[in-house]
Amino acid sequence: MEIFCPECKAGISPTKEACERCQTRYRGNTAFIDYEPDNNFYWGELEKGEMEKLLDFAKTVGYKKACFDFFKNHRRKSLLTYILSKKDRVAFLNFIYNKKYTDRALDLGSGFGTIPAALSELFKEVYSIENVKERVEFQTIIKSDDKIKNWQILKGDIRVLPFPDNYFDFV
Description:
single chain, alpha/beta, 5-stranded mixed beta sheet, 7 helices
């Protein structure tokens, strides 16, 4: 799967730390590309400390078990379904999905990663962009646990898209 510089749209390598053409900084690794490595912004349905506990638990026992155990007595029990119910979260596709256009999909502000995980079953390539590191890390656990190979996870600002125009079939 290709990745691009958000500034000049040149192809970039996940093993480097700057675009060779324009020197825009990013951080690559095997799990995700971080276009804003110095950004520690946090927003979420869970308080940051709770999200960190869920992440630690998911790294140990897998995201599904971690979610079941974490949310069973949590004040926001509905988040369990929100995170784990792929079919419910992508039900809108019944009205707009076209099998002729299944090369690439993009999820902007991809949160916990439920939607891009579901899209990976319908599209050849799926990209997700999320600005909160903890959510991106949770997405990497889902991708690993579910053995999803066609999902590229990106951490960055959705207002600065690192793709050429008309790159996606579905956004």
